[in-house]
Each structure stands twice: as C-alpha cells, then as structure tokens.
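Researcher: Next sequence.
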Amino acid sequence: MSHSKDIMSEEERVLQGVNRLPISRMIGYSVGDVGITTMKYIIAAYAMLFFTANIGASAVLVSTLFLIATVIQVLSIPIMGIVVDRTRTRNGKFRPYLLFGSIVLGITTILLFTTPAFNGTVKLVYAYIIYIVISLMHTLVHASYVAMAPALTQHPKERNVFVAVKSITVLLFGGIVTYAISLLLNMLRHKINIQEQVMITSAVIYSIVGFVLIFISFYATKAKTIEPAEKKPTIKELFCVVLYNKPLIVLIIIKFIVMVAFSLKASFQMYYFMYILKNIRLVAQTSLLSMLGMILSAILFPILANRLGKKRVFYIGMIIACIAGTVMYFIDNSSTPIVIGSMMFVSAGTTLANFSLGVMGWDTVEYGQWKTGIRAEGTIMNIPQFFSEIGHVLIGGLAGIILASCGIIPRIQQQSVQTLSCIKNMMTLIPILCFVVTIVIMYFYNLNEQKYIDIITAINSKEAK
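Model: Next structure:
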C-alpha cells in the first residue's frame, strides 16, 4: 500500500510543473469546434445550389470542380500542420490562425455568395477561386485548432477529462446553436423571398456566429500553452518526428481503418433502414439513441481510462461494438427494438474507442519530443487526419461501385435476397472485421501511462539543464 502511495506521489511530483486546464477553459476551447463546423455547414448546404442555380454551371461540372477542390483540401492537411509548427509569433503558433484565419474564412464565405455581375465563365472562375480559398482557410484554422489541444494540458488524467468535456460540449452546444440559427433564418425567410438573398443572409449569419464561437475559443486559450523553441524545425525534421514515432504510426493505421468502417456504414445506413428494417422513420430515433450512447460514453471514459488505462478502454469499446454488431447480424430483422439498441451500443463502444485514440494521439506529441527533441503538434495531430480523410474520400469514391456490386435497384421496395445480404454485411460484418483488425494492431501501441510519465520526466530533466 505504501509502495502504491510512493508511486502516486512520484507521479504527482513529476506532473506538478506541467500545464493544467480548468473545466471552464476546456469548454471555451471546445466551443471553437462548433464554430468551425458552423462555418463549414453553410458551404456544404448551399455551395452546390449556388454554383448550379446562380452561376448556371452544370451539376456534372460543379461535381468535378468540387472533387478537385476536395483533393486539394485533403493534400493541404499535412502542409497546414507543418505551417503551424513553423510559425513563430508573440501569440504563439496556434492562436493567430484561429483569430485571423476565422476572419478571412468568414469574409470569403460571404464573398462567395455575393459574386459580382461578371459574365458566365468569369463568374464561375471567380467563385471557384473563392471556394478553393475557403477550403484552404478552413483546413488551416482546423489544423491549428486540433494541434492546440495537446499543448493546453500534459496531465494524463486531465486529458481524459478534456476529451470527454469537448465531446459533450460539441454535442449539446452544437445542437443549441443549430436550433437557434434555424429559428432566426425561419423568421427572416418570411421577409425574404429571393433565393439569392436567402443564401447571402444565411452566409452572413453562419459566418458571424462561427467567428464569435472561434473567438471564444481564441480567448479561452490565452492561458499558458507549450510554446516552441525559437529555432524553426525544418520540414525534414518534422517528417522525422513522424517516422520515428512508432505509437503515432500505429494510431495512423488504426484511424484509417476505423474511418473506412465508419464511411462504409454511412454509405449503406439509409439502405439498411429502407430495405432491411423497412422503416426510414427509425433514422431519427436511432440517431437520438446513438447520441445518448455517445454522451454516456463521454461520462464513463475519464473514469474508465483513469482506472484501466486508455489502451484497455479502446479494447473494451471495440469489443462492445463487435458484440453489438454481431447481434445486429444474427437477430431477426423484425426485432426492431433489439436492432436499434444494438446500434446504440455500437455507437457507445466506438465512441469509447475514439476517445482513447484521441488522447493517445495527444500523448504521441510528447513521445515525438522525447525521441527527436522537437515538439510538433501541428504535424503530429494533422498527419492522422490526413490519412483518415483519404479513407473517407476513398470509400466515398468507391461507394457507387460498392452499391452497384450489391445489386441495389432504386425505387423498388423488395430487393433480392443477395442484395439484402450485401447491405447487411456492409453494415455489420465488414465493420466488425475492421474493428477486429484494429484490436490486433493496437497490441503494437507501446506508449502506456507509466511510459508517458517517464517521458515527461525525461523532457523536464532535459529542459532543466
């Protein structure tokens, strides 16, 4: 017993000098996520309509242009991470992009929907350049935002709480903001009848709200963060931080596989409700129950992670998801409550696993610093995002081919037995297989809680010299 107390006291002694983060600042930081999503939503909701209806471009051309923009945006993710790591200002390397980046993002969003009266081709080129700038600015703001998290606190137990608080804040606050904006727009639409004015008004409102929320995050994070050394790391050094970071490489592979599984489920979810459960109205109920499962997981995660460790919580979450997915596969389709309940447990289990992956990713920042002497939050936090986006785009691009291979015939209620089996497999067996593979790969993640404490000790000792 005394030995345990000695260990705990030694741990607290080591962590005494690391950055700490009160709950209020956790919430303030998390609000920025809602702001970034708010600014992104207006583009997702109206950009296609604007390019086709207002500019007059064909849907095929616009889809092609948007695909090119998506590729550019995905390829820019690691570049923006490097930009953040090489930034040196009096406000640090993260916060300037939150402030000035969000201002540019808001202005360009409004400019997109207020295109000057050029002729057709010039107008299209103008709007598309603005659209590309918006995509790149969103990537830069998001890259600096996610990179800031591991710099706000290095206390392992506090990080477990942080990721849970962030999730709950985004879910609840995001819902409130979306509902409030919808009410405001509904009131204004009674006074605005022209489609173009509706889009411009929506762009202004979403941009202002998004900027305010990001500014709150900017203000909430003005407390001390881990600031970089004066010397800027070279691009080669930043890539070495990734290549010599075994735990990070393991997480990159796992996150890629998880994103493939999620994207596959998302592509087939509506077909599952239409043709397997034969009730499209169940989507709303399932979404609500899944959200409740996510909130429950957010509440439980800090408790479980602090007691058992993040790696074990990952295993627990994935095993729950696999069991629930297996129930979905074998249960009779008419047992709707059991199917929906199983989907809720899949959501709860994968949420636990994702929380573990999130905090583990933060811990690899210190691992990289210990290995190379370079603290590179921007690169380390955005490289996994880059590969996850590749997984998402890959499945999105192949979705049509996969759907065709299943033999789905649109507008026909009764699909063939083979088609129904294919849909069910894509919603259950394939994701389960992906989850099992991640469980195996997680075995090679070697950065446990005790090793993290040892790394913090080594970093502190080196900085003290």
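Model: The chain has a mean pLDDT of 88. The CA atoms of residues 407 and 416 lie 8 Å apart.
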